[in-house]
Specification:
Mean pLDDT: 84
Low-confidence stretches: 228-240
Order of helices and strands: HEHHEEHHHHHH
Number of domains: 2
CATH superfamily of the largest domain: GntR ligand-binding domain-like
Number of helices: 9
CATH class of the largest domain: Mainly Alpha
Distance between the termini: 23 Å
CATH topology of the largest domain: Four Helix Bundle (Hemerythrin (Met), subunit A)
Helix content: 55-70%
Oligomer: single chain
CATH architecture of the largest domain: Up-down Bundle
Number of strands: 3
Radius of gyration: 18 Å
């Protein structure tokens, strides 16, 4: 289990929940104490969060929280959906290689195993996020379209755009578990469409995968801003 991945997810959640004010300086030592970790994984997480445009370098040194709007987040997720939909269509039309099939099946099996646990822990969240990133990246790489890959990499620099940046955390375990299982069922359906060469269906499934995240992201941001009743969870579907 990678402690750095766990710390990264916890820090993303704190930012999304509005635990830090825009412009607030993030002190490594205080974050480490709050998360029960050393400064090393916190420092590494801050570097990643800067790449995701959630924090920015402070003039006085270190990092501070970057201000982002719900529109920025929604636009980034929407663009990712279209780009990954194109990648899925290309893979289905080109045909799924034996190696790609093995890699995707391994991800599905790992996800099934993780989500069969009776309780979701930080470790399970982080392991699922890692698997999810690999699953999405396998499809993207298999598309063979270098321009598409560059476009995804550029879009991933926007707030909460990467596939696993919207992982549900803590809160209502039952609801989080249900949402993650639903997202993983979409992975299974996408895999079947790819194997059958159903380009249009694969594209539609990849786009729908991110539409689920749009709905839950809007709800989570509304809760953060106090414009909606408590949700009991930041229920953002992984990779969706």
């Amino acid at each position: 289990m990678n402690l750095q991945e766990t710390v990264l997810m916890q820090m993303r959640e704190l930012i999304l929940r509005g635990e830090f004010a825009p412009g607030q300086r993030l002190a490594e030592q205080q974050l480490a104490q709050r998360l029960g970790a050393s400064r090393t994984p916190v420092r590494a997480a801050l570097v990643t969060l800067e790449q995701e445009c959630l924090v920015q370098a402070s003039e006085s040194g270190g990092y501070q929280v970057r201000q982002f709007t719900p529109r920025e987040v929604a636009d980034a997720i929407a663009v990712r959906g279209q780009l990954e939909g194109m990648a899925a269509r290309l893979v289905a039309e080109h045909g799924v290689s034996r190696q790609l099939q093995l890699d995707l099946q391994a991800g599905l099996d790992e996800g099934d195993r993780l989500l069969s646990a009776p309780k979701l822990t930080h470790e399970i969240y982080a392991q699922y996020a890692s698997m999810n990133d690999r699953f999405h990246d396998c499809i993207l790489q298999a598309s063979g379209n270098s321009a598409l890959m560059r476009a995804v990499a550029l879009n991933n620099k926007l707030p909460f755009a990467p596939a696993s940046a919207t992982l549900p955390m803590q809160s209502n375990q039952v609801q989080d578990h249900d949402w993650m299982r639903y997202a993983h069922r979409q992975h299974h359906m996408l895999f079947e469409a790819l194997k059958r060469g159903e380009g249009a269906r694969a594209q539609a499934l990849a786009i729908e995968h991110t539409e689920v995240a749009q709905t839950n992201m809007r709800a989570a941001l509304a809760q953060r801003d106090g414009s909606a009743p408590p949700l009991s969870a930041i229920r953002l579907v992984v990779g969706g």
